[in-house]
Each structure stands twice: as structure tokens, then as C-alpha cells.
Specification:
By secondary structure, the protein is an alpha/beta fold. The protein contains twelve helices and twelve strands.
Length: 337
């Protein structure tokens, strides 16, 4: 548990499973932040040059194809501003990342929500939803909040159907948690497809949620438009330093991710054994499609001191925490059956 994730509050125990990004910050990252504190009186590099250079080498993509921003959320906003406006359409699955509808609304464009099928993107239906007004398609892979992921062949078929002038944005905020080899790496897809852009973030696996730093990988015309829409000096010096230090501590990061993925598998198995329906997750959470029982499940968890994230009358998202935290959740779930 990090200092940002206290175990208690004046109101009692804090919800164990709501700690979406609360992994203890790596010591090397803390050291980089301490060093950067001595320079907070100066403006940050507006190009995030050192971070972009490191990412360029790590991902094997040209520097001019990389644009850093205030988390993948901020980069999504800038992409939408660059690509869509009044009279245009933006297609995405639903349910998916809850920020998509307000971000699209802010551009004046029309949000076209395509229902999930079996908790997964219905890529055939999404392709069918494309019209001559479609400017951008968002594909959240793995999907938030269901954790499901689309596979290589189906995504390839989908991209083949999308017109070249429509930008397809692969939102890979949870990419580091993927262990299914059939889930494609979006950057491999972007290389041969000029209308594909990829979003990633340091908020999840890297545990830098409060610092707000993410990036896009896109071909030069898209990257240039994205830079033109970005807020100057948007990525702070602290965020740049922490992200750079995190990239340089990749072995330690991957070890943490492997531990979480193993716990995700344990929790999924236990919930299924207790009789719950749990789709395969490739993120740092699992999804229970509870329908009208969503509120009752969330209330029971909160009463027991554990908070899950309810989504209307659709289901709850359960973030994977420590084994002790998840054992508490599993007991509650077992008692509710």
C-alpha cells in the first residue's frame, strides 16, 4: 500500500478494491521525483523530449510519431478535437470507457454507441455503423469496464472494412496486463495502417495516475494535428521525470504486473467456482455482469467495507488488489450466492 492509499479514514476502512492504480511507487521513480522537485520553479519541456526519445527506442517507432499528453484521457480529448466536429460522428462500443461520451459531446460531434455482444466489442456491428459522417472510431482494447479484449484476426478484418479516411484509435490503457497471445499489439497494427493510432498511459501498470502522463503513437499527419490541439506545457516536469524513470525500471514493473495477472486468474477462478459469471479479463480488474442485481451487490460490498464500481444496471468492476483484499471480496461474493 502506498502513502496515497491509506488503510483507514475518519469514516472507517477505505474500500480495498477501489484502489485502481495504487501500487507502491517504485523506489527509482520516487528518487527521480525528489530530484525533479528542485526544478519545479521552471517550465517543463513542452515536447517531453527525453521521454519521447526513450519511448521511441523502447517501441521502435520514429520520434515524430510520438506525442505525449496528460494521460491517455487527455490525448483522447485532443485527438477528438483534431478529428471531429459538429455534423461528424464518432463510433465506439458501449459499454466502454465512461469518458468517451462527454469527450465526444465536447467536440460537437455525435456519439454512435454500438452495444457490446457477450461483454465484448461487436466489431462487425461497429463496421456496419460507419457512415460518410464517421471521422473517428474508438476501440478500447482491453475494454474498460468489462476487461474483455478483441483478437488479432477479428480486429484485422474490422480494420480492413474501415475506410482509409476514418481514424481508428486503439485505446490500450491496460495493455501491460494482457497475457493472451491472441490479443494484438496495437503498435504492430499501426505500422502498416496510416489511419490507426494507439493510446497508452502511465496511469495503470506504472502507478502514476495522479501525475497524468500518457502518449499516442500515430503517423505524422495525425501526430501533427494532435500536437496542434495539445495544451502547451501540459505534461509536467514531475510527470516526465517519473515516466522516464518508470521506463528504465521495466524488469521490476513486469514482475509486479505478473503478480497482479496471477491474482486476477485466481480471483476469476474463485468467482466462477462460486457460481458467478465472469468474462475473461485482460485488464487489472474483473467484471461481473449482474444486470438488475448490480446495486444490491455493490451495496452489500460497501456495507462490508469493500467498494466495487457499479455501472447502472449492467454490472460491477472489481479492481484486483492484494490477495488479502481479494479474499475479503471473495468471501462477500460467496456469501451473496
Amino acid at each position: 500500500m502506498s502513502p496515497g492509499c491509506p488503510a483507514t479514514s475518519p469514516a472507517g476502512p477505505l474500500p480495498a478494491t477501489r484502489w485502481t492504480s495504487c501500487r507502491r511507487t517504485l523506489p527509482s521513480v520516487v528518487a527521480a521525483l525528489r530530484e525533479e522537485l528542485g526544478r519545479v520553479n521552471r517550465y517543463p519541456d513542452p515536447t517531453s523530449g527525453a521521454l519521447v526519445t526513450e519511448l521511441s527506442g523502447d517501441l521502435a517507432v520514429p520520434r515524430e510519431h510520438l506525442v505525449a499528453g496528460t494521460g491517455s484521457l487527455g490525448v483522447t480529448r485532443d485527438l477528438l478535437r483534431a478529428a471531429a466536429g459538429e455534423g461528424d460522428e464518432v463510433v465506439f462500443a458501449w459499454r466502454s470507457f465512461e469518458a468517451y461520451p462527454p469527450l465526444v459531446w465536447g467536440t460537437g460531434a455525435t456519439a454512435v454507441r454500438v452495444p457490446l455482444r457477450d461483454e465484448r466489442h461487436d466489431l462487425e456491428a461497429m463496421a456496419d455503423a460507419v457512415t460518410d459522417r464517421t471521422r473517428l472510431i474508438l476501440v478500447c482494447n482491453p475494454n474498460n469496464p468489462t476487461g474483455t479484449a478483441v483478437h488479432r484476426a477479428e480486429l484485422g478484418r474490422f480494420l480492413d472494412r474501415v475506410p482509409d479516411q476514418v481514424l481508428v484509435v486503439l485505446d490500450e490503457a491496460y495493455r501491460e496486463f494482457v497475457d493472451d497471445t491472441d490479443v494484438p499489439d496495437g503498435i504492430a497494427l499501426y505500422r502498416d495502417r496510416p489511419n490507426v493510432a494507439v493510446l497508452r498511459t502511465f496511469s495503470k501498470a506504472y502507478g502514476l495516475a495522479r501525475l497524468r502522463v500518457g502518449y499516442a503513437v500515430a503517423h505524422p499527419p495525425v501526430a501533427a494535428a494532435l500536437r496542434a490541439c495539445a495544451v502547451p506545457f501540459g505534461v509536467s516536469g514531475l510527470a516526465q521525470a517519473a515516466a522516464l524513470a518508470s521506463l528504465n525500471a521495466k524488469p521490476e514493473l513486469l514482475a509486479r504486473v505478473a503478480t497482479l495477472v496471477a491474482e486476477r486468474a485466481r480471483v476469476t477462478h474463485a468467482l466462477r467456482a462460486a457460481g458467478w459469471s465472469v468474462p475473461d479479463s485482460q485488464a487489472n480488474f474483473v467484471w461481473l455482469p449482474l444486470g438488475s442485481g448490480t446495486r444490491a451487490f455493490a451495496d452489500a460490498c460497501e456495507t462490508a467495507g469493500v467498494m466495487v464500481r457499479p455501472f447502472g444496471d449492467e454490472g460491477v468492476r472489481i479492481t484486483i488488489g492484494t490477495p488479502e483484499q481479494m479474499d475479503r471480496l471473495l468471501k462477500i461474493a460467496g456469501d451473496l450466492r
